[in-house]
Amino acid sequence: MFCFQANKCKNLDCPVRQQKIPRCWEYFEKNSSIFPEYEDKLNACTKCNYKLGWDIGLISEKSFDNKIYIDELIPASDEQQSSLPKKGKKRFCHEIIECNNPHCPVREQQIIKCFKFFEPRSKEEKEKITCCNRDCESCFYKSGWDIGVLTEDDFLDVIERKKNSLKLQSQSKVDLIVEIYMAELAKKPLSRKEEKELEKKIATDKKASELFLIGNLKLVTKIAKKFTSKLSLMDLIQEGNIGLIKAISKFDYRLGYKFSTYAAYWIKYYMQKAVSEQSTSINIPCHLIAVANKIKHHIHKFEEELSRAPTIDELSSILGIAKDKIINILNVTKSPISIQSKVSSEEDDDETLEFYIEDKRTLTPEESLLEKEKVELLNRALETLNERQRFVVENFFGINCDELSLAEIGRRSNISRERARQILHSSLIKLSQYPSILSLNDK
After folding, report:
1. Are residues 81 and 144 in the same domain?
2. Which of 98, 191, 208, 282 meets the CB 3.0–4.6 Å disulfide criterion with 201?
3. Do the Cβ atoms of 45 and 24 come closer than 8 Å?
């Protein structure tokens, strides 16, 4: 404890505070000849309880070894911060405060907020863990978090390490499940001779097909490990097992093919089907995904060899697929983008993609105005026709009504179809000479 802590000194510019001088009276005695104002401080030191603590042995040099004090939690100025060493910064509570328990879970688990760890625990349990009766509410380590001297930015390496540890734990759990599964399969191997005998019985004997299925489950795991997708390994194995069942039901040993060669097709097919159905928002047929993967593979290979992207003509000649089909497949298999997704990564920018997508079903104000003007000009031109001519034109083109054929127009007007056609022809000639119709053609 320093004198400015014991006496609650409010002078932040005091050299004793700034230089962390344990024996303050010795400093004032040494500098009293240079600074006369220190004479009064030196006289006060003879009656000070802090000096008395040194005299009777309550305070000694050992009290200042390897300790961090509350003033060190006060934010330093920019000049001071630039001069502070970056490496070896003390940040955990057991580094700043003396901890009597070397096996404290806060220390072992590197818990950055010890007060949060002790908050739900009883006083007795806390004392048992810390081996002291320190109160978290009055602890200056917690004050450092409250005033912002300590933040999560100081523990980014610890947080990242813990995240990686959790990922490894989850991955190890998956690996353990796969190992148990593989160990179980290893107990029931089939020799080549037994496999050939069972191949002849699987079509009629249910028990033989079950044994054959168990004996080839290892093949599914082998294919699943080489399969790259967003699905987990166990999900791929489950889907591959369905393909294996399908392969067993369709296999014919009389054709002379090896079962593993035939089954690999069905296993990969069902795995690819699961990926297409579960990995994307829109279901895409498996054969299109297979072709799309083939196209992307050749594009990647072409870019590696020639350091440029291939043209559609080059892809078409390499794959033997029509250009229109390649374009359609690549468009169909594109990843969908939500119209609610933000355009910019900035937090203040709330604009989404829907603001920039044109609504082609709704007319713009300019188009609406032009359409209204066209309708007015057309009605003005139709008023120049007689009643029968107007009836034929309006019903044939569906103006303000449904479109009708010439035969239906003739039936409703009690005239022949040919006469209706003649009236329509003469009406159109008359309308084409009207000034408003000519202006419509210009627009």
Report:
1. yes
2. 208
3. yes
CA-based end-to-end distance of the chain: 92
- Check residue 107 and give its pLDDT: 78
Q: Is 187 helix (H, G, I), strand (E, B) or coil?
A: coil
Residue ending a domain, among 278, 299, 322, is: 278
Which residue type sits at 80? Q
Q: pLDDT category, 73, cuts 50, 70, 90?
A: very low
In this predicted structure, what is the pLDDT of residue 442? 55
Find out whether 115 and 96 touch, Cβ atoms under 8 Å. no
pLDDT digits (tens, 9 = 90+) for 97-156: 777 777 787 777 778 888 788 878 887 887 777 777 777 777 777 777 777 777 878 788
Nearest-angstrom CA–CA distance, 399 and 383:
13
| Domain-embedded: residue 183 | no
Instruction: List the structure tokens of 399.
Output: 């103006």
Question: Do the Cβ atoms of 99 and 130 come closer than 8 Å?
Answer: yes
Specify if 298 maps to a domain: no
Residue 71 is classified by DSSP as G
Does some domain include residue 265? yes
Helix 387-397 × helix 406-413 angle, to 10°: 150
Report the DSSP beta bridge partners of residue 342.
Answer: 352
Q: Looking at residue 79, what is its pLDDT?
A: 44
Among residues 72, 92, 90, 94, the alpha carbon closest in space to that of 81 is found at 72
CA distance 1 to 54: 11
Q: Which helix (H) or strand (E) holds 26?
A: helix 24-31
Do residue 89 and residue 130 come from a single domain?
yes
Query: Measuring CA to CA, which residue among 358, 285, 357 is closest to residue 328?
Result: 285
Where in the sequence is the domain holding 39, given as residue range(s)? 3-64
Q: Report d(CA 332, CA 284) in Å as an integer.
A: 8
Cα-Cα-Cα-Cα dihedral sign, residues 265, 266, 271, 276: positive
Q: Where are the alpha helices (DSSP H) in 251-333?
A: 259-278, 286-306, 312-319, 323-332
In this prediction, residue 74 has a pLDDT band, given cuts at 50, 70 and 90, of very low
pLDDT at 338 over 50: yes
> Which of these three, 64, 87, 109, is where a domain ends?
64
Q: Is residue 285 scored above 70 in pLDDT?
A: yes
The sign of the dihedral angle between the CA atoms of 356, 358, 362, 368 is positive
Q: What confidence tens digit (pLDDT) does each residue in 168-198 have?
A: 666 666 666 667 766 766 666 677 777 778 8
- Torsion, Cα of 128, 88, 2, 142 (10° steps): -50
